[in-house]
Structures are given as structure tokens and as C-alpha cells.
Known about the structure:
34% of the residues are buried. The protein is flat. The protein is built from one helix and 13 strands. The chain is mostly beta strands. Strand 7 and strand 8 form a beta hairpin. The protein folds into two domains: 124 residues, no CATH class; 91 residues.
Amino acid sequence: MRINTTISVVLLTLAAGVAPGQTAPYRVVNGQTDSDGFPISAARICVGSANTEQCYSPPAPKPPSPPFGLNATATDLKLATGVSLIVFTAESSIGGSGSLTNIALLADRNGQLIDLLPNITVTNQSEYRFWNLPAISGMPILTTADFVWGQVETHFSSHRYRITSYVYHKQGGRYVQLDEYITQKRYAGLDDANEIKVLEPEKATILHRLRSPSR
Length: 215
């Protein structure tokens, strides 16, 4: 049986009345679980006071995956400008060796938390990173690495990886895909490594492609 795990990454703009460099007060709540420990409702992050609180929950995954309700976390992401954003993660599991990860970035627009990303789903053999590249975008660039399963490869053996980068489109007010390529070399999977490490070895190629006008 396959695990389906979703990680939701949330970027929130500062709420009114919050000092520069600080995030608005927030709370993180895990979803409810059944007797086997599998989620039956989604986790959520809520921002603001009781009277003005706005909450976000990851969207429901495709069946048979349960809601993204486990191991919710929130961490501050501080930009060079001093503004602090929030990274929110939550997981979904039904047991097994596989997983899926959904990544969302939210902004506070007129009191509503809005997802700025297209629908992005990666597996548990993946890695993501935010790059601060002011020459390309005033907002962080999101890059993901996810394995490409070859015909003679086992699930957690070494694989080539699909590298995808997303940049904020100011006119559209949302992130769009800026670049994508598949690595030439294979990187260790979870049979041989405790975590996936692809983006740092590929960093020079990623940055070159992002800066190239002929992508």
C-alpha cells in the first residue's frame, strides 16, 4: 500500500499592525485521526486574533489519500528586506513506502489567505528550496527536485531528478513555472541515504538556467 504525504508550504504577508520583521500571531492545529492514526481531517494554520482569525487548510488530495492532517509545523522565513514569512507543512499517510507532497504558498489579501502557487505535487523522494535572487524576482523562487523512476530502477534506488523552478508573476499575482529539466546524473534514493540531496549539487546549473534568457 502506498503512503501519500503532502507538505504545504505557506508564505504569509504581514498583517496590519505587525512590526516589520515580525509575523502575525498564528496557531497550528493537526487534523483529527482515526483509530489507526490516519488523518480524517486536514491540519490548519490560523492567523490573527479570535475576532479576525483567518485559517488555511491544504486542499483534499485525490482518493484514496486521506486529508493532509499529520505533523503540522510552521516556521518563519525571513527575507533580506526584514519581512518574515511563514512556512507551513502537513502530512497525509495511509501506510506503505510511497508519499506525495503538495506545496502551497499563501498571501494575506484583504484578510483572506490566498494560494499563490499552481497545483504542485511531489513525492517523498523530493527536495525543495527557496532561492533569494533579486536580479530575477523580488519574491523567493521555489525550486523542487523529484525523482524520475526508470524502467530498471527500484523505488528507493538511485534516480535522475526533475528540477522545477517557480517564480512570482507580478502582473498575474501568482507564481508560474519558470524552468524545468531532468538531471544528467543519478542521485541516491532512500535505500542509500537518509534524505534526498539534489539541489545543492545542481545549484550551479539551476542558477545558470534561471539567469539565462534563452531557457
